[in-house]
Specification:
With 466 residues, this protein is mainly alpha-helical. The chain has one domain. 81% of the residues lie in helices and 0% in strands. The protein has 13 helices and no strands. Helix 6 packs antiparallel against helix 13 and helix 10 runs antiparallel to helix 12. The two termini are 18 Å apart.
Length: 466
């Protein structure tokens, strides 16, 4: 009886401690790592959109006849800037305690300040000497913008503020992956511990029951039978409860948040290609930068959807069109895209009701935007009228059929898929935490009941010796 009691107490201590540790790891994923990834992902998006709005303002110049006035682009730039500042604040809170990540964040903050200062100088110079014709930014203003572009992307388009922010975002992703892997391993360990201690307790109580039967000639000791049932509840209930928590955690991280990560990356990269489109227009009479911006667009769209067969912007848009025509909500996993691109990852990770429809709608909208981009690049830019028409097509979201309206529709559709997966993450993560949380205290209750029933069952037999 004493041995059974000691074993039950050891089991309670080990199991509740293990369950508490798992709950803390799950909390780290949901309350620390996920917010840091969200903040750094959104910061990348805001950076790209800030620069897009800056370029749009430079494209307008002092022309009052364009559909989207300069002030509207400057207002959107300011909104992005404030949100980006808030993202950095949120990342600072989420990353508190991670000294390496905080050092990266400090670098990002410094670089962000330099970029903003350069953007202000560029806008001020354009207001002073830009002139009244849309798309005719003076060489000095374009040189100012190039200085800011170098701060943003580095002289080789592989460094600068975007690289620092991307490294910070990668640190956040690595942290959540590491925490999630640790939590998953711990959940599996806890399931094994419940089964192990359950078998030991049930086996020990069964041996005790047999001993009482043989020594005292009693057929069944009801209280010992009850204690055995309690041990079974601890073993089966604990293992099943932990397995359910593991399933909820898998749904939250692997099924939901992995899609959020892929689609958030697509969102930020898409803001970048939209900016590249405007940069290409800004540099319409400067062949070198114009070619660079076009290549940047091409590289980025392949990261969004790595459809095979595209060797340049035009053939890639054709390949996306063919892929879009070939896909239905029932066969997204048969896509030719791989998990190395955002849409490829999402199409191979369709899990929730309505997700396939939302993902295909976003891809359809992406295809529409790319077809409009091909149209934009074929528009004549060698006259003020043609250039102005191209600028309106690129920046005016209010006109049906414009590139910017197509981009906004694509962004909205992409956001809908992100929202769907975010909702699943927000519901499954608390369920996982709550499910394992029950077993941070319930083993003590069951242990007390088991010991009480064991004493109750054996005390009458001990009294026979008096």
């Amino acid at each position: 009886m004493a041995a059974a009691g000691v074993l039950a107490i050891i089991a309670a201590v080990v199991l509740t401690t293990a369950a508490s540790g798992v709950r803390d790891r799950i909390s780290t994923v949901g309350d620390t790592d996920a917010p840091s990834v969200r903040a750094t992902d959104d910061f990348l998006f805001r950076l790209q959109d800030m620069d897009a709005q800056l370029v749009n303002a430079l494209l307008v110049n002092g022309d009052s006849q364009v559909h989207v006035p300069r002030a509207a682009s400057e207002a959107l730039y300011e909104t992005d800037r404030k949100t980006a500042d808030l993202d950095l604040e949120n990342a600072t809170v989420a990353l508190a305690g991670d000294q390496t990540a905080l050092k990266q964040l400090h670098t990002v903050s410094d670089d962000f300040g330099q970029y903003q200062a350069q953007a202000v100088r560029t806008l001020a110079d354009d207001e002073r000497v830009g002139g009244p014709v849309a798309g005719a930014a003076p060489a000095a203003v374009f040189a100012d913008y190039q200085n800011g572009h170098d701060l943003l992307f580095g002289g080789d388009d592989k460094g600068g503020l975007m690289k620092a922010a991307a490294d910070l975002e990668k640190s956040s992703r690595d942290a959540i992956d590491s925490s999630a892997s640790s939590a998953s391993r711990s959940l599996n360990t806890v399931i094994g511990e419940f089964l192990l201690f359950g078998v030991l307790l049930v086996g020990g109580l069964t041996v005790l029951q047999v001993y009482v039967f043989r020594r005292f000639k009693r057929t069944v000791n009801p209280a010992l039978a009850g204690a055995t049932v309690v041990a079974l509840v601890l073993m089966i209930g604990g293992a099943a409860g932990t397995a359910a928590a593991a399933a909820d955690f898998h749904t939250a991280k692997n099924d939901a948040f992995d899609s959020v990560l892929a689609l958030s990356e697509a969102n930020a990269t898409s803001a970048g290609i939209n900016a590249d489109e405007s940069r290409w227009l800004l540099a319409h009479d400067t062949p070198g930068p114009r070619s660079d911006y076009q290549q940047s667009f091409f590289r980025a769209e392949q990261a969004i959807a790595d459809v095979p067969g595209g060797t340049d912007i035009t053939t890639y848009a054709g390949a996306v069109y063919q892929e879009q025509k070939a896909r239905t909500v029932d066969d997204l996993s048969q896509t030719s895209m791989t998990r190395n691109s955002s849409f490829g990852e999402e199409f191979h990770n369709i899990t929730f009701p309505g997700e396939a429809e939302a993902a295909l709608k976003a891809f359809d909208a992406y295809n529409t935007y790319l077809q409009d981009d091909v149209q934009l690049r074929s528009m004549p830019l060698n006259t003020p009228v043609g250039l102005k028409a191209a600028i309106d097509f690129d920046t005016n979201a209010d006109t049906v059929g414009s590139s910017d309206q197509a981009f906004n529709a694509y962004s909205q559709a992409l956001g809908d898929v992100i929202t769907l997966n975010e909702a699943q993450f927000e519901s499954s993560m608390p369920a996982a935490k709550s499910g394992i949380g029950t077993w941070t205290w319930l083993p003590y209750v069951l242990t007390a009941l088991l010991i009480g029933l064991t004493v109750l069952g054996l005390r009458p037999r001990l009294n026979e010796y008096r």
